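Researcher: Go.
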Amino acid sequence: MDEMREQDLRILAVDDDETFLQLLRTVLAEAGYQDLDTALHAQDAMQKITEAKQPFDCVLLDIAMPGIDGIELCGKVRALPDYRITPILMLTAKLDDASIERAFDAGASDYVTKPIRGLELGARIRTARLLAEQMRRSVGLERSAAQLASRLETLARRSLDEGFTIQGVAACMPDRDLEQMLELLPKTTVATEVFALRIEGIQDIYRNSTAEQFNALLTEVAGNISAKLASSQHFISYVGSGVFGCVVLGNGRRNLEVDVTRLEFWNLKTDVFGNGPQNIRVTMSRTRRPKVEPGKVCVQTLRTAIARATEERLMRRLQLEIDQTKRRDGIIVPRRPRLGGTRRPRPTPPEA
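Model: Structure:
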């Protein structure tokens, strides 16, 4: 499918100031956007959205409106199935940190300050649209193609080390697409958590399961990850070998409501193998103490966390194979001493 041309973008602008809406129409026209619909209040906007034959491609909302303000309206629009990844830009006459934070929490993509400048608004719209297009391709909104791909992936037997897009979990996307999306993030959106998760014992699970069972397990694990990060905007990529890369986005504050480092937090029970519930152990790996990072910087942090998780899996597998080989050959494998557990022998007292 060809990407939409800039002049074909359908925009809905909502503001209680009719004079501003007329000015906005002129500014958008100068920036190359001709298809603009307007509303003076939230009820009018929701009616236009409901009655539209096709969803709008971008929504501009004034924060300060009587009745239902732009932030509340943003949450209502974002909750609609057709607008889950649509660019929503907030318009504000003053930089109020509290209002901006509430807007991002409600699902805003970005914000623009008044008075509106054509070049800035055009650039913000293009950036938000490119990000939405990337996400739309990644989550597979083409229903028939997604269903066909899901079926083919279920039947195919991939290699253990192969990464792929897990269907049915909206936050999942290929690792390359995730990195490209992070590169396109506006400066107001940053990564607040970057880490990798690894399914323990993935080698045995892969060897003892069918392709359908293995894919079903990965889907359950990805769904479990996404559910536990549901309080924040997040993205996941499966890179193979039972390893998932995870990024949590925010507006500059580390406000994740869960403790992702808790030892058993990511574990789950599954019945995909058909012989009763089984415990699946999932462990976390990250490079260092988390800090807020812009999208371009966190790409390398994500790669490092994934590499570390993959390396730890390979080292454990190698050690297990060495121990099994020694046991098979009749060699006694000693227990590894605990750190600090070695005691010095007591000196023998001199004979009288």
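Model: The first helix runs from residue 18 to 30.
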